[in-house]
Amino acid sequence: MKVTIYRGTKEIGGTLIELATASTRILIDAGYPLFLKNAPINDDIAKLPKERLLELGVLPNIRGLYSWDAASFDAIVVSHAHIDHYGLLKYAHPDIPVYMSDGTRTLIEVSQRFRIVDTYPLNTVQFRMYEPFTIGEICITPYLMDHSAFDAAAFEIRVEEKTVIYTGDFRGHGRKAVCFDRFIDRAKEHADLLLSEGTMLGRQNEVVLMEDELELKATDIIRSKDAPVLVQSSSQNIDRIVSFFRAAQRCRKTFVVDVYTANVLYELRQLGNRLPYPSPEFKNIKVFYPYRLTQRIFNEIGEEYAKRFSAQHISKTHIKQNQNNIVMMVRPSMRKDIESCELRNGTFIYSLWQGYRQSDYQQQFEEALVATGFELKELHTSGHASVSDIKKLINALQPKKIVPIHTMTPDEFSNISACVEQKEDGVTFDI
Length: 431
Ligand SMILES: [Zn+2]
Ligand SMILES: [Zn+2]
Fold this sequence. Notes:
Helix content is 28%, strand content 21%. By secondary structure, it is α/β, with parallel strands linked by helices. Strand 10 (138-145) and strand 11 (152-159) form a beta hairpin.
């Protein structure tokens, strides 16, 4: 089997891995980069024409992948619904089937519907966790993983007697920690190649809390003051939303999500699970309708996505009058709506990676909160594996060869195992 990592041997995100046999060619992940020339990529780059994106390397030179070539891949297999793993699907040839889990497809579809990402047709084939499927002569078993993206997968890939394991993005300290243990138990030992993510190897001074511990800390913060609590996190980080929902519930406060987050929870809940979502079943979850987003839903997206939560609607007046009793998920684009709720002297909890916090837009949002008496706090834990969990994985699976991926510091892997081989982007190797 021939392996080519087009991007990710020395950077976080933008993952693209080709696996090829004599008769079958697949791409694992089709990620949009988070970095360009070692600096965080500018949002405007995505608007450039394809010729420029190819020149810049945002689109690596991959024969037979793109819509303007003759398609020569048998499949693209996507590990999870983070843009750095699926953001290039937009450019992929529409004849290439795209395999993904139900949860991943749902999150991508919600993102498209709400114009978080561009809209393009998806030729998807659904796989089920732990159920092997074949593409030509390649057999793939997906494993549900613990990650900040819902329904994320690792893959065990077999061709005749050769096995490659790709961890995707994972962690062992989230709400699905048990899935990480199950993966370690069931995945093949002594695989010929382990492609392991190593995001945290370059961030070893970051505190790694268990998601349960984070929930308890959130509970303490909420309980410490009779005042409004605003939380900024990702609307698609379901583990985190559940942590703050549970913390609010412990403190008998109303948990408020905006209508976009409400739709994310609603759509995922339809897949058959026990996720909390705005409904008669969860009386303390209410839905807030930010003005501009609501206009867009009625004018462009479809009014049913607003109307489905009519019975759970919470008005600005209600929030204002009951402000000491709310825990509300917010983001900077809701600044004007929050201002008109006239919240005072509360706590703002930033629950994302600190690296995202420096933009002017974010800073202005936080300054406006401080001006109304808000105290700023930070409470976050990574979506990625701690060094000890990467060691645990390697010790348990004992792969013959390890190639680091999704890391800025691949050389740090050498401190964990003697079987590490660093590779270069775009250079094919055999296993
Ligand atoms: Zn990633
Ligand atoms: Zn991810």
